Amino acid sequence: MSTAQTGSSSKSGAAWRNWAGNVVSRPVREVTPASVEELTAAVRRAAEDGLKVKAVGTGHSFTAAAATDGVLIRPQLLTGIRNIDRDKGTVTVEAGTPLKRLNMALAREGLSLTNMGDIMEQTVSGATSTGTHGTGRDSASIAAQIKGLELVTAAGELISCSATERPEVFAAARIGLGALGIVTAITFAVEPVFLLTAREEPMSFDKVLADFDELHAENEHFEFYWFPHTGNCNTKRNNRSAGPEAPVSAVSSLWEDEILSNGLFQVVNSIGRAVPATIPAIAKVSSKALSARTYTDIPYKVFTSPRRVRFVEMEYAVPREALAATLRELKAMVDGSDLRVSFPVEVRTAPADDIALSTASGRDSAYIAVHMYKGTPYQRYFTAAERIFTAHEGRPHWGKVHTRDAEYFAQAYPRFGEFTELRDRLDPDRLFGNAYLRRVLGD
């Protein structure tokens, strides 16, 4: 249930930093509301004081989407499940609830989301507002599983929306970038908990691309990682299973998920940052370190995994049919340059959805994510990658590094004008604005 604690407000001046450390802002004050009423009051007071206001989750975005020099809303007291409706197959949850807490609570109730991303540290509102997604042939992003939203508008009004109530707001606000209001609660579609069997195995770059259409069609959830400077990939297929449950053993989890994927990966990235010339050799070893394995468990234990090595990331969605050509160009660019890239490139998919600013809005999509270890210069790599992605009509993830602006998005999104017109109506004075929104949405 929701907390009954009293929230707090304080003068700030202290710096706020995101998870990756590449975004810093200094709000005038911070507010930690313990109720929707307190949050609404904080929004009204910010407007009276002539200050911008932004809500921030766990800071897992690599963009300045939540940065503000005005009032920073921290929603960590707005947590918990409000209601479970088993007949409708929905759960309503407070906006500040971490995905991890939601997933664990749903599992205890014998329920689950249909699909999710690969980490679950984010708040539900932060994850959905920026379009966080996993991979899926038929099931889309977390935001696409939303059935209803409650948000506070710039007028200090609490409104609700769904497919039947204020549908024009619902069409946009599921991925609202914090531009339309501050989300206070989300109603998700859920289903009885089920089992997934994960099959992880290495595969060559050429074979993955040659067989990609088949691998995508035959698996409910398919993704792969390509290791730059090699022709090697690791693949993962997740499909529903009748069981029995056969989770990853404690020994395998410790060795592969903690020691190899986090501990040793941290060490080799530190070495690569200090001595970039070692990266190609390290990549060849790293790409062969993880062995094939199969396991069966409840969804959040299969979809998600710990990510403790910090990095900076750019991700673009391209039309799914353009994936092979885009990825081959990316590989040729890396192979033909003196870049040294120690992080694998992640590839996932999503079906078309009906959300105005979803990266999969109106088209089946493939996601290509490039990463660089925290503290390593990333601009040259990301600039070259972005040039390739945009040449294939790419749409950047709203919460990850990119250089696109409103002019680009007006071309990339058929429903961009629908979103900006709604913003003009709900927040004409840009109470929820900041420099990032000015760049990507215009003024």
Provide a compact summary of the structure.
31% of the residues lie in helices and 25% in strands. With 443 residues, the protein is of the alpha+beta class.
Structural account:
It is a single chain. The chain is of the alpha+beta class and 443 residues long. It is built from 14 helices and 21 strands. The protein has helices spanning 36-48, 99-108, 124-129, 167-173, 205-210, 212-218, 250-274, 279-286, 299-303, 323-335, 379-391, 406-412, 416-426, 435-441, and strands spanning 8-11, 16-17, 24-25, 29-32, 53-55, 71-73, 81-85, 90-94, 111-112, 146-152, 158-162, 182-189, 191-192, 195-204, 221-226, 232-241, 293-297, 311-319, 345-350, 365-373, 395-396. Helix 10 runs antiparallel to helix 11 (379-391). The protein is globular. The model has no long low-confidence stretch (mean pLDDT 93).
Protein traits:
five-stranded antiparallel β-sheet, 443 residues, globular, alpha+beta
Protein topology:
Layout: E1 8-11, E2 16-17, E3 24-25, E4 29-32, H1 36-48, E5 53-55, E6 71-73, E7 81-85, E8 90-94, H2 99-108, E9 111-112, H3 124-129, E10 146-152, E11 158-162, H4 167-173, E12 182-189, E13 191-192, E14 195-204, H5 205-210, H6 212-218, E15 221-226, E16 232-241, H7 250-274, H8 279-286, E17 293-297, H9 299-303, E18 311-319, H10 323-335, E19 345-350, E20 365-373, H11 379-391, E21 395-396, H12 406-412, H13 416-426, H14 435-441
Parallel strand pairs: 4-6, 5-6
Antiparallel strand pairs: 1-4, 2-3, 7-8, 8-12, 9-13, 10-11, 10-12, 14-16, 14-17, 15-16, 15-19, 18-20, 18-21, 19-20
